[in-house]
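@channel sequence for tomorrow's demo:
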Amino acid sequence: MKNIILLGPPGAGKGTQADLICELCHIPKISTGDMLREAVASGSDLGNKVSNILDTGGLVSDEIIGALIKDRLSKPDCENGALFDGVPRTIGQAQQLSQMGVNFTHVIEIFVEDIEIVNRMSGRRVHPGSGRNYHVLYNPPQTEGADDITGEPLVQREDDKPETVLKRLEVYHDQTKPLTDFYRSLSQKNSLKFFQVDGLDSVEKVFENISKEI
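C-alpha coordinates (generated this afternoon):
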Protein backbone atom coordinates (compact mmCIF):
# COMPACT_ATOMS: atom_id res chain seq x y z
CA MET A 1 0.00 0.00 0.00
CA LYS A 2 1.18 3.50 -0.87
CA ASN A 3 -0.42 6.55 0.74
CA ILE A 4 1.41 9.46 -0.89
CA ILE A 5 1.42 13.21 -0.30
CA LEU A 6 2.61 15.42 -3.16
CA LEU A 7 3.99 18.82 -2.15
CA GLY A 8 5.33 21.74 -4.18
CA PRO A 9 4.59 25.34 -5.15
CA PRO A 10 1.96 26.31 -7.74
CA GLY A 11 3.36 25.74 -11.21
CA ALA A 12 5.85 23.03 -10.12
CA GLY A 13 4.13 20.36 -12.21
CA LYS A 14 2.32 18.49 -9.43
CA GLY A 15 -0.79 17.81 -11.53
CA THR A 16 1.14 16.10 -14.31
CA GLN A 17 3.21 13.99 -11.91
CA ALA A 18 0.14 13.12 -9.81
CA ASP A 19 -1.57 11.52 -12.82
CA LEU A 20 1.58 9.55 -13.71
CA ILE A 21 2.06 8.33 -10.12
CA CYS A 22 -1.58 7.24 -9.84
CA GLU A 23 -1.26 5.25 -13.06
CA LEU A 24 1.99 3.67 -11.88
CA CYS A 25 0.67 2.66 -8.44
CA HIS A 26 -2.97 2.01 -9.42
CA ILE A 27 -4.27 4.42 -6.80
CA PRO A 28 -6.82 7.28 -6.92
CA LYS A 29 -5.88 10.97 -6.78
CA ILE A 30 -7.68 12.82 -4.00
CA SER A 31 -7.99 16.54 -3.32
CA THR A 32 -9.83 18.55 -0.68
CA GLY A 33 -12.51 19.50 -3.22
CA ASP A 34 -13.08 15.86 -4.19
CA MET A 35 -13.46 14.80 -0.56
CA LEU A 36 -15.83 17.64 0.33
CA ARG A 37 -18.08 16.96 -2.69
CA GLU A 38 -18.17 13.21 -1.99
CA ALA A 39 -18.90 13.75 1.70
CA VAL A 40 -21.82 16.10 0.96
CA ALA A 41 -23.21 13.74 -1.71
CA SER A 42 -23.04 10.76 0.69
CA GLY A 43 -25.57 12.26 3.10
CA SER A 44 -23.61 10.86 6.06
CA ASP A 45 -23.46 12.64 9.42
CA LEU A 46 -20.01 13.94 8.51
CA GLY A 47 -21.24 14.96 5.07
CA ASN A 48 -24.20 16.87 6.55
CA LYS A 49 -21.83 18.65 8.91
CA VAL A 50 -19.62 19.67 5.98
CA SER A 51 -22.68 20.77 3.97
CA ASN A 52 -23.88 23.02 6.80
CA ILE A 53 -20.44 24.64 7.11
CA LEU A 54 -20.15 25.28 3.36
CA ASP A 55 -23.72 26.59 3.11
CA THR A 56 -23.00 29.21 5.76
CA GLY A 57 -19.69 30.20 4.20
CA GLY A 58 -17.64 28.80 7.08
CA LEU A 59 -14.20 27.19 7.01
CA VAL A 60 -13.90 23.43 7.33
CA SER A 61 -11.81 22.70 10.44
CA ASP A 62 -8.57 20.71 10.51
CA GLU A 63 -10.40 18.09 12.57
CA ILE A 64 -13.03 17.58 9.88
CA ILE A 65 -10.40 17.49 7.11
CA GLY A 66 -8.65 14.76 9.11
CA ALA A 67 -11.90 12.81 9.51
CA LEU A 68 -12.62 13.14 5.79
CA ILE A 69 -9.18 11.76 4.87
CA LYS A 70 -9.53 8.88 7.31
CA ASP A 71 -12.97 8.07 5.87
CA ARG A 72 -11.71 8.39 2.27
CA LEU A 73 -8.85 5.96 2.87
CA SER A 74 -11.37 3.35 4.09
CA LYS A 75 -13.12 3.24 0.68
CA PRO A 76 -12.61 0.20 -1.60
CA ASP A 77 -10.79 2.17 -4.34
CA CYS A 78 -8.07 3.03 -1.79
CA GLU A 79 -7.20 -0.62 -1.22
CA ASN A 80 -3.75 -0.02 -2.74
CA GLY A 81 -3.47 3.46 -1.19
CA ALA A 82 -4.11 6.96 -2.49
CA LEU A 83 -2.30 10.08 -3.64
CA PHE A 84 -3.19 13.34 -1.89
CA ASP A 85 -2.63 16.49 -3.94
CA GLY A 86 -2.98 19.68 -1.89
CA VAL A 87 -3.96 17.80 1.27
CA PRO A 88 -2.92 18.37 4.02
CA ARG A 89 -2.47 22.08 3.35
CA THR A 90 -1.30 23.26 6.78
CA ILE A 91 0.72 22.08 9.77
CA GLY A 92 -2.54 21.95 11.75
CA GLN A 93 -4.07 19.48 9.30
CA ALA A 94 -0.89 17.38 9.26
CA GLN A 95 -0.82 17.23 13.05
CA GLN A 96 -4.50 16.30 13.16
CA LEU A 97 -3.89 13.41 10.75
CA SER A 98 -0.90 12.22 12.76
CA GLN A 99 -2.95 12.25 15.98
CA MET A 100 -5.74 10.29 14.26
CA GLY A 101 -3.29 7.58 13.24
CA VAL A 102 -3.55 8.25 9.50
CA ASN A 103 -0.32 6.88 8.09
CA PHE A 104 1.37 8.07 4.91
CA THR A 105 4.10 5.98 3.30
CA HIS A 106 5.69 8.64 1.05
CA VAL A 107 5.90 12.43 0.96
CA ILE A 108 7.28 13.84 -2.29
CA GLU A 109 8.32 17.48 -2.69
CA ILE A 110 8.73 18.80 -6.22
CA PHE A 111 11.18 21.63 -5.62
CA VAL A 112 11.39 24.70 -7.88
CA GLU A 113 12.82 28.11 -6.95
CA ASP A 114 10.37 31.02 -6.84
CA ILE A 115 12.04 32.90 -9.70
CA GLU A 116 11.63 29.87 -11.96
CA ILE A 117 7.96 29.53 -10.98
CA VAL A 118 7.34 33.18 -11.87
CA ASN A 119 9.13 32.76 -15.22
CA ARG A 120 7.26 29.55 -15.95
CA MET A 121 3.79 30.83 -15.13
CA SER A 122 4.08 34.42 -16.32
CA GLY A 123 5.30 33.19 -19.71
CA ARG A 124 2.19 31.09 -20.34
CA ARG A 125 -0.25 32.18 -23.04
CA VAL A 126 -3.61 30.61 -23.84
CA HIS A 127 -5.93 30.49 -26.82
CA PRO A 128 -9.32 31.18 -25.15
CA GLY A 129 -11.40 29.32 -27.74
CA SER A 130 -9.59 25.97 -27.54
CA GLY A 131 -7.53 26.11 -24.36
CA ARG A 132 -4.31 25.51 -26.32
CA ASN A 133 -1.31 26.48 -24.21
CA TYR A 134 1.91 28.16 -25.27
CA HIS A 135 4.93 29.62 -23.51
CA VAL A 136 6.85 32.64 -24.73
CA LEU A 137 10.18 30.88 -24.04
CA TYR A 138 9.63 27.11 -23.88
CA ASN A 139 6.80 26.60 -26.38
CA PRO A 140 6.33 29.79 -28.42
CA PRO A 141 3.66 30.09 -31.11
CA GLN A 142 4.81 30.30 -34.74
CA THR A 143 3.69 33.94 -34.79
CA GLU A 144 4.19 35.96 -31.63
CA GLY A 145 0.93 36.46 -29.73
CA ALA A 146 -1.19 34.38 -32.15
CA ASP A 147 -2.63 30.86 -32.04
CA ASP A 148 -0.95 28.46 -34.50
CA ILE A 149 -4.26 27.03 -35.76
CA THR A 150 -6.64 29.98 -35.93
CA GLY A 151 -4.31 32.97 -35.85
CA GLU A 152 -6.49 34.47 -33.11
CA PRO A 153 -4.87 36.45 -30.26
CA LEU A 154 -3.45 34.62 -27.25
CA VAL A 155 -4.12 35.89 -23.74
CA GLN A 156 -2.35 35.81 -20.40
CA ARG A 157 -4.67 34.49 -17.69
CA GLU A 158 -5.06 36.56 -14.53
CA ASP A 159 -3.64 33.67 -12.48
CA ASP A 160 -0.46 33.73 -14.57
CA LYS A 161 0.37 37.42 -14.15
CA PRO A 162 3.60 37.94 -12.15
CA GLU A 163 1.93 39.86 -9.31
CA THR A 164 -0.71 37.11 -8.91
CA VAL A 165 1.91 34.35 -9.02
CA LEU A 166 3.94 36.13 -6.32
CA LYS A 167 0.86 36.35 -4.08
CA ARG A 168 0.16 32.63 -4.55
CA LEU A 169 3.79 31.83 -3.71
CA GLU A 170 3.56 33.98 -0.58
CA VAL A 171 0.54 31.95 0.60
CA TYR A 172 2.39 28.71 -0.24
CA HIS A 173 5.48 29.67 1.77
CA ASP A 174 3.39 30.85 4.69
CA GLN A 175 0.95 27.92 4.94
CA THR A 176 2.21 24.89 3.03
CA LYS A 177 6.01 25.00 2.76
CA PRO A 178 6.42 24.32 6.54
CA LEU A 179 4.96 20.86 5.83
CA THR A 180 8.26 19.84 4.23
CA ASP A 181 10.09 20.29 7.54
CA PHE A 182 7.24 18.61 9.44
CA TYR A 183 7.32 15.48 7.27
CA ARG A 184 11.11 15.45 6.97
CA SER A 185 11.27 15.35 10.78
CA LEU A 186 8.54 12.70 10.93
CA SER A 187 10.41 10.52 8.42
CA GLN A 188 13.33 10.28 10.85
CA LYS A 189 11.09 8.76 13.53
CA ASN A 190 9.04 6.20 11.60
CA SER A 191 8.75 4.36 8.29
CA LEU A 192 7.56 7.40 6.33
CA LYS A 193 9.81 8.14 3.33
CA PHE A 194 10.33 11.83 2.53
CA PHE A 195 12.22 12.85 -0.59
CA GLN A 196 12.69 15.82 -2.87
CA VAL A 197 12.97 15.91 -6.66
CA ASP A 198 14.15 18.72 -8.93
CA GLY A 199 11.12 20.18 -10.69
CA LEU A 200 13.32 21.85 -13.33
CA ASP A 201 14.06 18.46 -14.90
CA SER A 202 11.91 17.28 -17.80
CA VAL A 203 8.53 15.68 -17.00
CA GLU A 204 10.02 12.30 -17.90
CA LYS A 205 13.09 12.77 -15.69
CA VAL A 206 11.05 13.98 -12.71
CA PHE A 207 8.78 10.93 -13.02
CA GLU A 208 11.78 8.61 -13.39
CA ASN A 209 13.28 10.00 -10.16
CA ILE A 210 9.98 9.64 -8.31
CA SER A 211 9.49 6.09 -9.61
CA LYS A 212 12.88 5.03 -8.27
CA GLU A 213 11.93 6.22 -4.77
CA ILE A 214 8.47 4.64 -4.60
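heads up for whoever presents: The domain at 2-213 is CATH 3.40.50.300 (Rossmann fold).
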